[in-house]
Amino acid sequence: MSSTASAEIASAVMSVPAAAPAEAAAHYAARLAFEADVSDVHADLLAGVPGVVVVDTRSEAGWNQGRIPGSLHIPTARIAELAPQLIDPARTVVTYCWGPGCNGATRAALAFARLGYQVKEMLGGFEYWVREGFAYDSATGTERRPVDDLTAPRSGISCAC
Length: 161
What we know:
This protein is about 40% helix and about 15% strand. It contains 7 helices and 7 strands, in the order ααβαβαβαβαβαββ.
């Protein structure tokens, strides 16, 4: 193919040029300051890392259906009322809701930030916690589903991203 022909091919990816490397580094570092993934949250909980508290922001029905072991239940509408009573402001709060199609964890993170807490949102929410094969508590006890191999290695080990 000649260079003239290749120049005529429009790129959907490059229709907006990529950011300069320094700008990209700042952007991605900022995202990581606001977000954590389920594997990292699981690893911290498993290791007993101090200073992290995981908060389920869903309704009572969602909490009863399933929740991350060790998490606190504070529905988003009650964060301003309950957080100061339940969570040391020196701890980092990790919020979660149903999953990536729900912005409840984002709303909850905003509520915690407005109260002065350091906060991160757990990407993927409860859905990806379950899909990655991690144990969860429900009204009937501890449960675990098989790993969804579209979200994590079948072996159940960390993806080591």
